[in-house]
Amino acid sequence: MATSLLLLLDDIATVLDDVSILTKVAAKKTAGVLGDDLALNAQQVSGVRAEREIPVVWAVCKGSFINKAILVPAALAIGTWLPWLVTPLLMVGGAFLCFEGFEKLAHKFLHKKEHDAGTERHEKAVADASVDVVAMEKDKIKGAVRTDFILSAEIIAITLGTVQGQPFLTQLSVLVGIALIMTIGVYGLVAGIVKLDDAGLYLSQRASAASQAFGRAILWAAPWLMKALSVAGTAAMFLVGGGILVHGVPAFGHALEDWAKATGGVFGTLGSMGVNAGVGLVAGAVVLAVVELVGKLRGKKA
Predict the structure, then answer these.
(1) Where exactly are the structural domains of the chain?
(2) What is the pLDDT of residues 125-155, one digit of tens each?
(3) Cβ 170 vs Cβ 79: under 8 Å
(4) How far is CA 287 from CA 67, 96, 100, 120, in A?
(5) Neighbours of 272 (CB within 10 A)
(6) Which residues in 118-140 are b (16+ Cβ under 10 Å) and which e?
(7) What span, in angstroms and rounded, lies between the C-alpha atoms of 65 and 25?
């Protein structure tokens, strides 16, 4: 009996060791998506009242947990019974990301007056204490949760590819572990970023001259950081979406990887990113054109 117990403990230790190793591998592979997820979500939850920032982040975080609670079982089921479906689903998600990114650019540059007017109305609404801010935030939260679903799907899909062929319990443990680590990591950082201005204000009011100087520096840098994250978030839509589309066509994806390796260094990496972004821009433009055309045809039909 003692021997059986020792064997059981040894098996458990082996499984845990495999889970730990595979989780580290999956975390490395999904690190790029984590950066994009952070930039996109920090952009999505910006522009709300200070006292509503954490509730909004928490609402999106809860939505992200729900997304992953749906995606993990779905990934296990698809990986077991419909492995051929993973790539088409990722391609649809990638195209949607490109569409959202291009729609933002089109709205900003082709409809600049409407965009500026909308931004001004939003700022006035945020400053107006009589406005129901919670109701205004619902669309922002929905958009952030929708974007999170696509990025979460990519994270889960990459992780599924890492653990493919492993025992079911190992696959489940690694997928759940990555889902928890990524969600807590992203939204913990997003919460810290959106509260930077509050931290700067607090430090600027301290007695210490050093604290005051540091606080003022944070207050100066915080708006620039949010603008940078906004730009990075939009760029991430094209990079991630275009990357999904590129790698969804194996011949194209492998050729790009081989070229990047042959080129090597910074030029290879930048070239690969440039191709992904270019594909993302073109795909976003095509999808937006189709959506606009379908909208006009439906309007005429009505």
Answers:
(1) 23-199+229-301
(2) 444 555 556 667 788 888 888 888 888 887 8
(3) no
(4) 24, 8, 9, 29
(5) 19
(6) eeeeeeeebeeeeeebeeebeeb
(7) 22
